[in-house]
Amino acid sequence: MNTDRIRENLASVQDRIVAAARRAGRDPSTVTLVAVTKKRPVELVRPLLEAGARDLGENYPQELWEKVDALSDSPMPIRWHLIGHLQGNKARRTFPMVRMIHAVDSLKLLQTLDELAAESANPPEVCLQVNTSHEEAKHGWKDASILDDSQAIAACTRIKVVGLMTMAAWGTDAETARPSFVRLRAIRDSLARLTGRPLPHLSMGMSNDFEAAVEEGATLVRVGSALFEGAEP
Ligand SMILES: *Cc1c(COP(=O)(O)O)cnc(C)c1O
């Protein structure tokens, strides 16, 4: 395990985010790096926290619960994000642990979370997942079909819907992924108009394509492998 390498990787990803934001004329402080720790042991997550990461993302609820527990002794405050698919029956337990749920992928799940939010003092914010790459395996509303649900989404007033999330097609690089990001922003603009909600957040961009995502307006990038490169035995 090479903890220096994790520190260097984090600094490099942060620098690349700042540079991409500046290229697009954006304020770099409007972009949050969510460090994706899925499948990494807590021994690799602690050095990331020591190096300054504060927002951590997990994919699977079960693994999230375990990590939250294992890192509950962390002297650094952690903001947890669930970035993967959430089954309705795991929502209640997950709800109080996370700052944001990125991948709400159906109206039914949104409505379940809206009911949970009514009982919660500090409910997480949520983003709605849109499948902009047209890959069948991906969760979420199929592209602009989310606009058909705008009234039902607007009716969920107890949960804080703050934006949209997407994943570019597998195996793409920044330039082939870019159209997905442009598309998500356009759909967000339309949905914001139709719902009357500002929807300020765009959760998009991973290790291979986060700079293009920042250039196209990402406010949250979800980066995993680029942070751990060379650090694992
Ligand atoms: C794993 C994962 C990421 C991070 O991917 P990397 O390519 O490792 O940066 C981001 N978002 C989601 C939804 C993921 O499952």
Describe how the helices and strands are arranged.
Elements: H1 3-23, E1 32-36, H2 42-50, E2 55-58, H3 61-70, E3 79-82, H4 91-94, E4 100-104, H5 107-118, E5 125-131, E6 141-142, H6 150-154, E7 160-165, H7 174-195, E8 201-203, H8 210-215, E9 220-223, H9 225-228
Parallel strand pairs: 1-2, 1-9, 2-3, 3-4, 4-5, 5-6, 5-7, 7-8
This protein binds pyridoxal-5'-phosphate.
Q: In the CATH hierarchy, what is the class?
A: Alpha Beta
Poorly predicted residue ranges: none
Strand content: 15-25%
| Total strands | 9
Calculate the terminal CA-CA distance, rounded to whole Å: 5 Å
Biggest sheet details: 9 strands, parallel
CATH architecture: Alpha-Beta Barrel
CATH topology: TIM Barrel
Mean pLDDT across the residues is: 96
- How many helical stretches? 9
Number of domains: 1
Small-molecule binders here are: pyridoxal-5'-phosphate
Shape, please?
A: globular
Order of SSEs: HEHEHEHEHEEHEHEHEH
